[in-house]
Structures are given as C-alpha cells and as structure tokens.
Amino acid sequence: MDFDKIYKQLIQIIPKEKVILNEQMSKHTTFKVGGPAKIFVDIDNFTNLKESITILNKNKIPYKVIGNGSNILVKDEGYSGVILKISFANYKIKKIDNTFIINVESGVKLGMLAQKFLDYEIEGFEFASGIPGTIGGAIRMNAGAHGKEMKDIIKTVTILDENNEIKTIENNNCNFEYRNSIFSTKNWIIIEAEIELQKGNKEEIKSKMDEYKKYRIEKQPIEYPSAGSTFKRGKDFITAKLIDDAGLKGYSIGGAEVSTKQAGFIINKNNATAQDIINLIQEVQKIIYKKYKKKIETEVEII
C-alpha cells in the first residue's frame, strides 16, 4: 500500500500538523502502549472526516476510528493502516420546560460534559462523570456505571454508514445491551448524539459526582495506566470476584499486572508492552475457565 501517496492526499484537505506518519499509538491510548500507525489523523470537523473516508475507501486503505483511546489496546507492531482520531467536540443545549435536549458531537469527553451539565443544573449524567472516554466511544459500547448506562439517556445517534452517508438511528433501533450496541457490530462511525435529561438540583448533582469520584479513587487503580475494566461481567457471575477468588490479584506478566485494588482491571504497572497485557489477559481467561468453567470476555478492543 502506498501510504506516502495517501499522506499527500490527506494533507490536501487536512492541516499538515494533524496528519502524522508512523505515529506511536502509545501516545493516544490510556494503556500507554501500542506501536505505530502508518498514518495518524486528528479529525476536528465532520467535513474532514467524510473527505478522509472517501480517500481511504477509494484507495482500499484499512482504517480504525478512535476517540480518547480509553477502551483499546494497540499491539506492539502497531496498525498497518490509518487511525482516525475524532476530535470534533461541539454541543448545543436546548431547554423545554424542565427538560433539556442536548446535541453533542462524538468527540466530546464525558468528564467535561458532566461538568457543563453541573453548571446548567442538568441531572442524570452523573454516572458518566468518571468514565475516561468520549460520547462516541461510550455509545458504541453502551458504557455505564453506578446502575446506569448510555442507553438510558440517548434519544438518537447520528452516524456515517459504510457508504459514507449520514443516518440517524432512534434509541430503540440501537440494540443496546450490556457493553454492546449495533455500533459495535456495524462499520459505522458515530458523529453525534441527541441526549434527553431533566433539570435537577445543583448541590445534589455535585454530591453524586463527588461520591462517584471518591468511589473511583478508593476502588479503582486510577494511578496506573489501564483501559478501565478489562473484562465484561458474566451473565451469572461477577468476573472481578472470580479473579479475586482465584487468587489472581497482583498476578503479573512482564510489566502488566492484575490490579491488587480491583481484580477486574489489568494495569500497565511497570512499562508493560502490549504483548505483556495480551498474555496476562489470556492467562487470566485460561485460569478462570480451568478453575470455574466460566468463559470471561474482554471489554477492551485489541487493534
């Protein structure tokens, strides 16, 4: 594949400083690991996204779309294609009586949005305030915490489909499930969402956000690079409990470790490679299956 040719085409439509050859993905993931992407593109508006996809499709170049890099693990050998990082992050808030309709672009970070909602006294988004991702990524995996998920607040999701056409999907057609949605199974790019929330009490909203923040600090290993919870909850079991019961807290391979604070998290404890993390994930899966006959799945997407 002629990536120099693709690079030259991309810098015709996107500022040169936003198109980088052989960019280390360790700079763009919360795990802080990952080899180079052939081309890395920081996309800060929808027009550039559409034009980039047109170029890549025409030249049959593989590509992956990422947000904050908080739920992905890029292999040490990197990615033999183009990584498109979605950075467009505008939002509009419309109030109708005590209801707020918010249109938010997919690159908006959840923590920042939660703070804005606090300023506007909008309740119902507190659960997402500590999730280190973007709206697009959170919708794709139906992210959740503290008993709520994205499916509970989404009205519609606007996407760019495999034919580079814009479509709007209603909530009931999003196939939201635990850590899954239609967007995980289709080659669609989320560009915007419409959220519906209610007016609340500022002190109560802040109190909830503070409570959730305290919980994260106490219960999660946020002092180390990770991709959040590594494993999905089982249908009839709590994965972190099984890992803990199996005595795997603190179990390590290379620089990767099963967190001693929260067994569901694998952390980059000491300059881990992506392969260290992959090996540890597979070893934990193997041990849990051997011991309990339970298959545990990852939340993290390996690229």
Question: Helices and strands in order, then pairings?
Answer:
Layout: H1 3-10, E1 19-24, E2 36-43, H2 46-58, E3 63-66, E4 72-73, E5 79-86, E6 91-96, E7 99-105, H3 110-119, E8 122-123, H4 135-140, E9 144-145, E10 148-149, E11 154-160, E12 166-170, H5 182-185, E13 189-199, H6 202-219, H7 239-245, E14 252-253, E15 256-258, E16 266-268, H8 274-292, E17 301-302
Parallel strand pairs: 2-5, 3-5, 4-17
Antiparallel strand pairs: 1-2, 6-7, 7-13, 8-13, 9-10, 11-12, 11-13, 14-15, 15-16
Describe the protein.
- By secondary structure, the chain is of the alpha+beta class.
- It is built from eight helices and 17 strands.
Count of DSSP-assigned helices:
8
Major beta-sheet overview: 6 strands, antiparallel
- Percentage of residues in strands: 25-35%
Per DSSP E runs of 2 or more residues, the count of β-strands stands at 17
Helix fraction?
25-40%
Distance between the termini: 19 Å
- Are there runs of 5+ residues with pLDDT below 50, and where? none
Rg to the nearest angstrom? 20 Å
Class inferred from helices and paired strands: alpha+beta
Kindly state the mean pLDDT as a whole number? 96
Seen as an oligomer or otherwise, the chain set is: single chain
Gross morphology is globular
H/E element order: HEEHEEEEEHEHEEEEHEHHEEEHE
Short description, anyone?
This protein has helices spanning 3-10, 46-58, 110-119, 135-140, 182-185, 202-219, 239-245, 274-292, and strands at residues 19-24, 36-43, 63-66, 72-73, 79-86, 91-96, 99-105, 122-123, 144-145, 148-149, 154-160, 166-170, 189-199, 252-253, 256-258, 266-268, 301-302.
